[in-house]
Amino acid sequence: MINTFAQVDYLASAGGSVWHRASALTKLAAAVAVIGGALFANGWPALAALLVTVIVLVLTARLPLRLILAAITAPLLFAFVFAAAAWDGQAAHAAPRLVRPVIAGVVALWLVGTTPYPDLFAPISRVLPRAVGDSLFLTYRAVFSLLGRVERLWKALFLRGALQGPVRRRAGMMGEAVGTVVLYGFERSHRLYQVMHLRGHSGRICGCRHWLDLRREDAWVIGVLLWVVVAAIVFHGAPRS
Description:
Elements: H1 2-14, H2 18-21, H3 24-39, H4 44-60, H5 65-85, H6 91-114, H7 117-127, H8 130-159, H9 167-198, H10 218-234
């Protein structure tokens, strides 16, 4: 999992597609429009148009096929449970419940795979409370360190035979492992705050590189946004799913 996160983070900064050069603000608006269109779509034509749109987006962004397949299949695991719970005997009603999470997952991959995290969190932090925005900014980077810690801890437990034996013994070991990771995260956040304070932290983290620098490539993103709006209007009268 940590390798997947690291790969997405690298692709967001090292990619050279037209979507990578567009500003974060327009891409964020387009992603919100796609997700909103999928949630309020009336019928299959609108959902099919949005699904094709997001697939084209990730393919033209030159994201790895493995990540695309993961963005498609991962939401299906949870959506299938929800669709099964709400099953009324009609596949036409259950299928859209599976397609909507796929659309959201793929467009989210396109957004985070083409936008460096400082640019992505900068516009979000402008509308959220200061503490929440700064916490999101720092948490994103801390995830990599914590996942690496968990991975090393899991390997150590496996090599030392801690995952063998009775269920009660294994449960106790896993509880101690979780406690170790929590304490490590708390200690790391405390050290990070002290370092930031010593370096003159003024109470505001500015993750603002180029999130508002509109460029020629933003015309493509605006085109996607307009296409989503047009598709929602054109297919508004389609039969409900």
